[in-house]
Amino acid sequence: MAVRPPPCVIDCGTGYTKIGYAGNTEPQFIMPSCIAIRETASVGDQAQRRLMKGVDDLDFFIGDEAIDKPNYATKWPIRHGIVEDWDLMEKFMEQVIFKYLRAEPEDHSFLMTEPPLNTPENREYLAEIMFETFNVPGLYIAVQAVLALAASWTSRQVGERTLTGIVIDSGDGVTHAIPVAEGYVIGSCIKHIPIAGRDITYFIQQLLREREIGIPPEQSLETAKAVKERYCYICPDIVKEFTKYDMDPGKWIKKYKGINAISKNEFQIDVGYERFLGPEIFFHPEFANPDFMQPISDVVDEVIQNCPIDVRRPLYKNIVLSGGSTMFRDFGRRLQRDLKRVVDARLKMSEELSGGILPGLRRRRTGLLPTSFVFHLETKGPRIWRKGGEAHSPLLEVQC
């Protein structure tokens, strides 16, 4: 009996693509989701365009190779988790399968991922490319949040394997709070958060520019991204963090060294407040986006409260972090603390509200019969229990 080749797994995100084979504990390759293509010749040079037409179809690079090609135009086919250029995406998939996985697509089934709010048209385009272009024998398109819940089973802290939980999926281009019940996404309760890794990079870039510390303009975005990935973390209290840096700057300020791409000279910058102010926009989004004021803890609580009441407790019990932008140090601890404060504040408010209502209902809730009831019973008889043909309590008449 011939051994069946393992399925191929491809997870295409806005910033990075993860590829590998099913059964492995980690991806074989993690690469940027970009493609470098050579710009076409000018409109007037028709002869050269005809000669280069066939060559241009093969002359492209993906991933890290694409970033290292300064003479090529770098394109990103995926934006905010949704594929926007299917021609480039087909070229991207071609090199992923043949060059990196080195697989014959006719021999492997494929597991591919999609964002929670993916459109049916995009799903159809993906299936069309995989079946008609690559002739795959089998294809399964799974929602990233469900796969993240299943992947959380490998954690030592997971005591019960369940596919019910809420997934905070934050990548480079988009962040979603996705409730999942028994493996099915509750689509009507998904909440989109307009804060992601790329917004953090832009915010750090803005902070560095305001300081005017001599970063080459063409490398400011690259430098901000490197600062984010190397030095940033989540702080428990932003005011105390400012005080800590002001009291002992030498202990907390880091040095970043880079090389000017043009002059090849080395430059150095101090990284201070940017270390904690960058990822802080998850919990204070007004720092970077004045149109969105809701912290991520409030978003998670709102999503759970919008779900059916019978799954709310399991959702609170199982909150899974997914995506590169949730990997900042102490992200989970800060989210857990802030979410607990939101829930406790709501419970306290409900207790105070019930405390004001119950005293007014105390007389109606009592089951004791007053002495005056005996007089009414003797004068009106047993019919006091009925009024207008319906069940009636005489206590309301006696006590009013």
From TrEMBL:
Principal location: cytoplasm
Molecular function GO labels: actin binding; ATP binding
InterPro entries: Actin (IPR004000), Actin/actin-like_CS (IPR020902), ATPase_NBD (IPR043129)
UniProt feature coiled coil, ranges: none
Annotated Gene Ontology cellular component terms: cytoskeleton
Alphabetized UniProt keyword annotations: Actin-binding, ATP-binding, Cytoplasm, Cytoskeleton, Nucleotide-binding
Protein name per UniProt: Actin related protein 3B
Species per Swiss-Prot/TrEMBL record: Cyprinus carpio
Organism placement in taxonomy: Eukaryota, Metazoa, Chordata, Craniata, Vertebrata
